[in-house]
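Sync notes, pocket subgroup
Present: LS, DG
LS reminded everyone that the earlier model was apo-only. Rerun requested with 1-O-phosphono-alpha-D-glucopyranose included. Inputs:
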Amino acid sequence: MRVSKAVVPAAGLGTRFLPATKAQPKEMLPVVDRPAIHYIAEEVDQCGISDLLIVTGRGKRAIEDHFDRAIELERLLEETGNPRLSELQQLLDRLQVFYVRQGTPRGLGHAIACAERHIDNEDFAVLLPDDLYLSDEPALGQLIRVAEELDAPVVAVVEVPKADIGRYGVVAVREQVSPGVYRVLDMVEKPAPEDAPSQFGVVGRYVLPPEIFAHLKRTAPGAGGEIQLTDALKALCEARPVYAVTVVGERYDIGEPLGLLRAQISFALRRPDLADGVREFLAEVTNGL
Ligand code: G1P
């Protein structure tokens, strides 16, 4: 596998964050001082990928504005010696960001299918913007390393508590092929806890071959009446070996308010300019409890 393109589905409605997401995309909600999707773009860049396709939809224009130049603002900042946009400008010099719109939201599988023409018969990475990682090696980089070594598609997994397993795509695996790497035997989207084949939930990062598009075309609506990427991956597993990699690092599910708050705090604690203040405040509020 050779990955030089990444796809980020960002057409979801963000209903769990209403009313915050009534007039802005959930991918633009800030984690400290960067929108969530900015961290995803940084992860793509850290993996040496320069072609990023974002699958958007109605009401998502702020994402395009974020990854675009803002000449007047840049000029003003330059005049006043304010460097706050320079890191983003450098990122944009390295990344080329493309967009395709998913007219009707018919599920994650359908969003990925919208990328077919852009991917043009190449291997590619998928990053779900609801999953943010704090890790030494980028989460996607950990997958790409295994996908290259084994020349096979790879999905990221973590062990999740049984009570939460019904929120995930779940893999059935054979024994480890190397530390943290398992051959996937089967996959099921959002099973009832008693039907889950394991406690390995799929967590927002995939390295996929272009054949996935043919499987997606044959995939009927599944869990929640949506076209599920998991169902197309199940078919892919039957056709060729697919592997699951347990990601080393901390994962934050920012698709729900408590997860976003947890990410806010953890990311702020990694910031030298904020860590002390956050620690003091946390001690203050927890003492008062
Ligand atoms: C999606 C995928 C699911 C995966 C989850 C977390 O579900 O369909 O397989 O486990 O993301 O990455 P969603 O949370 O969008 O319902």
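DG: The chain has eleven helices and 13 strands.
LS: The two ends are 52 Å apart (CA to CA).
Action: DG to write up.
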